Amino acid sequence: MSQKKLKKLKKMEFVGLEGEKVWELISGFRQIVKENWKFLLCLFLGVFLLYFNSLKGAFVSDDYASIPQNLLVTNFSFMFQGFVSMSNWFLATIFGIVNPVPYHLFSLILYILICGLAFVFLTILFDKNIARWSVVIFAALPIHVETVSWISGKPYLFNSFFVLLSLIVLVLYLRTGTKKYFWTLLCLIPLTFIAEKIRFMSFLFLAILYFVSFKEKIKIKINWSKVILSCCFGILVLMVILWPSIIFRVNNVNGGYNGSGGIFYDPFFQYPTAMAKYLQLALFPVDLTLYHTMYIFPVWLNWLIFLSYLSGVTYYFFKDKKMFFALAFIFVATAPSMAPIKVSWLVAERYLLLGSLGLCLFLVLFFQKFGEKWKLPIYILFFTLVGVYSIRVYLRNIDWETNHNLWVSTCQVSPNSHNAWNNIGDDYDKLGQYENAIKGFTQSTVVKPNYADAYHNRANIFFKTGRLDLARDSYNTALVYSPGLYQTYLSLIQIDLTEKKYDLALEHSKKYVDMQPNDPQAWYVYGVVNSQAGLTDEALKIFSLILEKYPSYKPAKDAMIQLTQQS
């Protein structure tokens, strides 16, 4: 017998979790897909039909800034900023930036592929029956709608895709020792990092979870001291690389007038509250919303759920490693989004996309324990669960169809969210319903009295409707809470000039220039104010300074010509 055949037979002696020979694991993807193509086809069609009504959704929320209002989205250099930018560049180049359907379809296809990878992953670790039941529940979870139906949820889809793919290759390498899996893994790890730099850590955490749960299945020798040192060094390097991004994200989540005190969460509040909320949202998705601010469980119940979860993880660690793996997977995968430093919101549905696979696996393993004795009730419960979840997915997709649907739904579920009320005010402004817009912005200031954006936005509506006294008052209030809001000074200048209050216009324009010294528009506005205030020589001097630094700035050229002719 040739060495090649002996090597092949040696690999085929692999033993699965249940003590049976699992031939398809050695062949990897192709054999699993080949043997389960009918199930996968039904799964993919089912997911497509389930999310079909999401395809008619418009651009909503952050989608505008990233696609239709992004002047760089079709620039070739834009695609090198990451997989999200690359996909947006590709779709914008081919389909344009007006029709959102291609962008929704791309996200849906990516989600379908994630479901396929989840099936392969669980088939490798367990068996195809457990994988099938788990993935069907996973595909129908309503908590995933935010990630799939919202185009801006794409980073979490890419992250889950590459983490699952890397985990599959890692497991195959550890169980077979085949070099092709090792080299494939080395190629995938950088791609996983590029997909989502902070949540890339999910792969490292889940790899450790696999080592702990299934160490007896690992067929290669591992030098743990080197592995630990390498991981520590890698984490240190990542922290250095990502530190600017972390600081930016902290400021974005908790900066200035939008802050809530400190850059760290209180862990005694964060973890019991967040973990209880995530489990409730996954199992009982009645209050899905973009901004989670309503934590209705009492403190004692949050702690009871939290301690029960930790007790379950501890118990199964000693009694049943499969159940331990499933239960721990939920929050090990979600851990990068639950850091005590405020790089993430306390709770967001998109954060649980990957972790929810562990919950689905745990439910199936739990059902399996009682399968023989309670077969019919468990089947009824399973199909009822999938049916109810599917209806909830359909209805939640409707919430994401338009900006108006989204913000109405968000305000109903999260009435104490200042962001939600501010956004619905902005939506009513776009619809031309100015009185409703004023109500939305006002409610935002009621919920968060120091929220400067809401005061500024409300003032804009007052200005549009000719109520200049109310506009000035609201602009001034915005500056009390955020003195650096230079757009507010620009708006006040317009009111000053309309009311011919040139002393105030000069004062406000000078502050505008002080805050934006390198912006030619700021200096141009300062020149115009001086001109209208009768200070022609000063205005000419300002326009000359602009043209010295920005020779092609046409507004300054035109203004200078006009002033010269008048004098």
Describe the 3D structure:
- There is one protein chain.
- The protein is an all-alpha fold and 567 residues long.
- The protein has two domains: 10-58 and 100-399, no CATH class; 486-567, Tetratricopeptide repeat domain (Serine Threonine Protein Phosphatase 5, Tetratricopeptide repeat, Alpha Horseshoe).
- The protein has helices at 3-11, 23-27, 29-35, 37-50, 63-66, 83-95, 101-125, 128-140, 145-149, 154-176, 179-195, 201-213, 224-254, 267-283, 299-319, 321-334, 356-369, 375-399, 403-413, 418-430, 434-447, 452-464, 468-481, 486-498, 502-515, 520-532, 536-549, 554-566.
- The radius of gyration is 28 Å and the shape is elongated.
- The chain starts with a helix and ends with a helix.
Q: What is the compact description of this entry?
A:
This protein has 567 residues and is mainly α. The protein has 28 helices and no strands. The longest helix is centred in the middle third of the chain and has 31 residues, at 224-254.
Fraction of residues in helix = over 70%
| Topology order in helix (H) and strand (E) letters | HHHHHHHHHHHHHHHHHHHHHHHHHHHH
Percent of residues in β-strands:
under 5%
Number of strands: 0
Count the DSSP helices: 28
Largest sheet properties: none
What is the 3D shape? elongated
Mean pLDDT over the residues: 87
Uncertain runs are: 5-27
Compute the number of structural domains. 2
Structural class: mainly alpha
First CA to last CA: what distance? Answer: 103 Å
* Backbone CA Rg: 28 Å
